[in-house]
Amino acid sequence: MNKNIVLIGMPGCGKSTLSKIMAKRLNKPVIDMDDYIESHEEKTIKEMFDISEAFFRDVESKYSILLGELNSHIIATGGGIVKRKENITNLKKNSVIVFINRPVDDIVGDIDVRTRPLLSKGVEAVYSLYNERIHLYKGYCDIEINNVGEIQKVADLIIEKVQLYKVENNQ
Ligand SMILES: Nc1ncnc2c1ncn2[C@@H]1O[C@H](COP(=O)(O)OP(=O)(O)OP(=O)(O)O)[C@@H](O)[C@H]1O
Ligand SMILES: O=C(O)C1=C[C@@H](O)[C@@H](O)[C@H](O)C1
Ligand SMILES: [Mg+2]
């Protein structure tokens, strides 16, 4: 069975962009979990958060079970997937988990040119979110990749490291 490659990391760390590049290179289907949830639930993430964060987190957990059943997919998760350990347990059943660690200064540099809910809380909120979550991302991943430099090369590095991980772990 061919495991999924699941990307975790902060909002703006490059999960969506990298997952698309990797899917193309490996000729595998890609799922962006935030988009997948919105289209299957017929609600935007904002609408779900407006009900309550717990409502969204419950939905997100439900999809971590469903997507954990797949194989051979590239999956970009939402930034908060690590908030519930069960999500990682569900995904890890059949996936290699890759933490995309991008310098917060680079994330912040990109945020003001894009529409991200985080922006409304200011730049400081991004730093505190990183400090809050860094131990979770590091603790839950199988592989950590520093997203610095040319993004195509970072995608190549992930593919290389995942292949090595699979060989080393007989997968
Ligand atoms: N190594 C890099 N070099 C240049 N730009 C980068 C790099 N990594 C990410 N980016 C840029 O950062 C932005 C955020 O990337 P992306 O949308 O893929 O992040 P994300 O992790 O999916 O974020 P979110 O969790 O908010 O969906 C994009 O404009 C992307 O092109
Ligand atoms: O970091 C987070 O908590 C989130 C990140 C996004 O990908 C979305 O999943 C949602 O906006 C929550
Ligand atoms: Mg994304």
UniProtKB/TrEMBL annotation:
Reactions that this protein is recorded to catalyse: shikimate + ATP = 3-phosphoshikimate + ADP + H(+)
BP-aspect Gene Ontology terms: amino acid biosynthetic process; aromatic amino acid family biosynthetic process; chorismate biosynthetic process
Please provide, in alphabetical order, the Gene Ontology terms of the cellular component aspect for this entry: cytosol
Which SUPFAM superfamilies does this one have? P-loop containing nucleoside triphosphate hydrolases
Provide the binding site for Mg(2+): 16
Q: Which domain of life is it from?
A: Bacteria
Instruction: Using the record for this protein, list the coiled-coil segments as residue ranges, or answer none.
Output: none
Keywords attached to this entry: Amino-acid biosynthesis, Aromatic amino acid biosynthesis, ATP-binding, Cytoplasm, Kinase, Magnesium, Metal-binding, Nucleotide-binding, Transferase
Record's subcellular location: Cytoplasm
Predominant subcellular localization, coarse grouping: cytoplasm
Pathway per the UniProt entry: Metabolic intermediate biosynthesis; chorismate biosynthesis; chorismate from D-erythrose 4-phosphate and phosphoenolpyruvate: step 5/7
Which InterPro entries is this protein grouped with? P-loop_NTPase, Shikimate/glucono_kinase, Shikimate_kinase/TSH1
Gene3D superfamilies for this protein = P-loop containing nucleotide triphosphate hydrolases
State the CDD domains in the record.
SK
Q: Which GO terms describe its molecular function?
A: ATP binding; magnesium ion binding; shikimate kinase activity
- Residues bound to substrate are 34, 57, 79, 133
| Cofactors named for this entry | Mg(2+)
Known EC number(s)?
2.7.1.71
Pfam families attached to this UniProt entry? SKI
Write out the residues that bind ATP.
12-17, 116
What is the role of this chain?
Answer: Catalyzes the specific phosphorylation of the 3-hydroxyl group of shikimic acid using ATP as a cosubstrate.
Subunit-structure text: Monomer.
Please give the family membership noted in the entry: Belongs to the shikimate kinase family.
Its name, as the record gives it, is: Shikimate kinase
What organism is recorded for this protein? Alkalibaculum bacchi
Q: Which gene encodes it?
A: aroK
